[in-house]
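Sharing a chain and its predicted structure for anyone who wants a worked example. Both blocks are below, sequence first, tokens second.
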Amino acid sequence: MIDEPRRFGFAYGTLPGHAERGEERFLIEWLTDDTVWYDLDAISCPRYWAARVAYPVARRLQRQFARLSKASMAAAVAAGRSPDSDVSKHSC
């Protein structure tokens, strides 16, 4: 967890048994020139043979997720709201 006055973010890693081994980090940073950066960094590699076979599909899905995440953040900023402000907060 990164929780600083001009930086906020979090990271997580895959659990044992997941098809891939990796980590992902999401970071928002407000720079001194008043620009704001949204950074998504991910590293992963297949853990099992089936994940190796599906490697091209997994990479395509990861790139799609990055594009959609960027678009969601840009839309939230343009609308002047939190990206999750329209997400229902229901317990299971």
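Comments welcome. The beta strands are 2-4, 7-13, 20-30, 36-46.
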